[in-house]
Amino acid sequence: MEVIVILIPLALLLGLFFIGSFIWMTRKGQYDDLETPRLRMLLDEKPKKGRVHEQD
Amino acid sequence: MEICTHCDEPIEVAVFDDSAHPFCCQGCLTVFKVLQSNGLADYYKIKSSGGLLRKRAPIQLSRTHFQYLDDPSFLQEYTHLTDRNERSISFYLEGIHCLACLWLIEKLPQIAPDVLEAKLDMEKSVVGLTLKPTGKLAQAALALDQLGYRPHPLKKNQKTEALKLREERLQLLRIGVAAAGASNIMLYAVSIYGGAEGSYAAFFNLLTVIFALPVLSFSAWPFYRTAWLSLRNKEMSIDVPISVALISGTLMGIYSVAVGVDENYFDSLTALVFLLLLSRYFLKRIQEKGLAAQDLHFFYHNESVRKSVDSTHESFASIHPQFLSVGDVIQLNEEDFIPVDGIILRGEVRVNAALLTGESAAKKCSVGDTVFAGTQVVRGSALVRVDQATQETRLGKILKSVEDGWAQKAQIVEVTQKVSSYFLWTVCALAVLLFVKLSLEGTLRHALEQMITLLIVTCPCALAIGTPLAFTRALGVAARKGVVVKNDAVLEKLSHIKKIFFDKTGTLTDGRPVVESFLVLKQAWLPIYDVVLSLEKRSKHPIAHALCEYAVAQEANLLEVNDFNEEIGHGVSGSFDGIQYSIHSYHVFEGTTPIARFSVCDRIREEAAQTVATFKERGLQVGVISGDKASVVNDVAEQVGVSRSFVFAEISPEEKKRMIQRESNVLMVGDGANDAMALTSADVGVAVCGSADISLRAADVYLLNPGLDSLSELHLLSQETMKIIRRNLILSLSYNGLSVIAVFSGMITPLVAAIIMPLSSLTVLLSTLWGTKIQRSLWKS
Fold this sequence. Notes:
The structure holds two protein chains of two kinds. Chain A contains two helices and no strands. By secondary structure, chain A is mainly α. Chain A is elongated. Chain A starts with a helix and ends in a 16-residue tail after the last helix. By secondary structure, chain B is α+β, with helices and mostly antiparallel strands. In chain B, strands 8, 9, 10, 11, 12, 13 and 14 form a seven-stranded antiparallel beta sheet that branches. Chain B has a seven-stranded mixed beta sheet with strand order 15-27-26-25-16-23-24, with helices on both faces. In chain B, helix 7 (158-193) runs antiparallel to helix 8 (198-219) and helix 17 (488-494) crosses helix 26 (709-744). The longest helix of chain B has 36 residues, at 158-193.
């Protein structure tokens, strides 16, 4: 049973880590659009054929 | 039947490109060419592999050039510069429907070099563009338009947008925290139920309290806020009994740690907070989907208009109608929507005022006549002096009245709201009763504990979870059937409807002429339908369109036309192999001899009679209310089966509104600006497909697909949804009754509560998902 002394803080830390990262991701806007990204990932990028867009 | 290469619609008259791909119209062909020439032909590959998300219509090419977008006053109002000194603007796009659209739109920088980035939000059909600071907006908008997505600039208030975003993220955080709290608590609560003892139990109990506090304060905050607001307004909402349970639970939990009792109700309560937040979040999401199409007020006035810039009216500048002022002179061409009220200075036009007045026949207006905003030029061109602009026009005033109408629209008392009021009083009475009973029998402390327990376990969470879910489901089904419903209250109101009024033009009828009869009087040299098709194909008059459709149905072919000529009010003429043909005054002439006679009518929609009959069967009173002439309205009403005593013709928009206002539980179905005020005054206003923008704003429900079929289905859906909600009500109240009995007989423990409370929510959830027999058939179809 003594192992629980290590396991519980570990579980708590793990939980806190995930809550923390969830808050961070939400604040960064990762969850603002829940529809488009799941579709966007289906589209393949074509390898660029030496044509580079100017992006400044 | 052949299918259009671009839009997949069946083709009536095919248009071909050089490699013989068939198209349904010139618009689709143009888009196809644009894509090919920009190396974006992959669009068609993606489209065929991706599957449709929404139905789409053939491309309508507009002739706007969007110059007004680069007007400094426009830029000031609609765009903003980012930190990196790039210009950003959002457009609502018409016609976004599949994966390929997403791919195409985000390739915009390839077509319009001024655009640095294009990001599409599929859910809202809104594209956010980032441009070079000096980039031309008109170029970007034109490119979007050429791709077949008509852009409408969105005016964004940075502050409200930022606030909205913050609110949305906060909501997600609340749900996330509730989920994390509830699941961690579960871990320790199970250990306690499983028999943890001594210092372990005390420690676990402490942990549950630590996890529960953020959930019951931060996550549950919206419940407390609504409860407080409704109490302050002396109203009742379901959040009041929920808040009572949550607060009692919190107090009891903290108290349990203080006195060293290793039990609390946090496991049940946090799980319920999570489920409640989630169900409300789903409902909000699906409502916003409908509302995205609602932000349409920018739709009206967004065509540019040619304003004369010299005294002879020879040269013109393209500006946004918003910036027109009284006394300006503008030029109107065929197919233009008139943006102002004004007087014709030069020229002659035929004007279709169906949207504004409901009249089906186009009116001829010449020098000195007044034309009104919201009407459309069907033929000819004219110079018009602006008498009233923007809000001061007749249309503007209707618009204003629509807006005021919205603000005044009575909110209905929802069924859950009514129930929660009785519920709270009953629970309070029971709690007092329990307290008195137990304090007489035993200690005061025990009585207090049991009373709080009663308040916790009678939390009407099942009801509060089931109702939003039932509405979410219904709104989702409606959306899939092409019906946009503004919010859940509309569905509830719809289920109580007793009377239903239809507008005529554009609602019961198609709103455009079709050939009613075509009588060949004399054999012509050439096949008559070929002649008709070849001549009328070049005209844009609505009757010409009707004749073309008719000729195509007779399998006519296109012939070579010479000396084509079209005059306003005098039809079309042209020669074939030296023989002169003309079509005017509802006759076809060879030379001067009439060879055929035809008549046109505004065809009644195929399903109109069926819809009317369905509503009558359901015991509703059906009427027709129109601005058109009595003879026409009566005729249509008779054909669709509306009895004479419920037909009202030659009714002005203002009168329509008054008539609807006098009725209660009334549904109004309309399309034009003339119906807009009536739509807001009705309990439920429905705008049919192809409605004027202003009617869309006025309506509670918008049918995206042409026709009235979806209307009767929607009515059925609303009634069935209310049935489910009532069933959930009974289920959840029975569970509450059970808990009350358990408390009174002293059987309740946190473990029993942890079983009963989620079980009740689960039952309601399953009942909602299971639906009714009729609902299941609606879901499937």
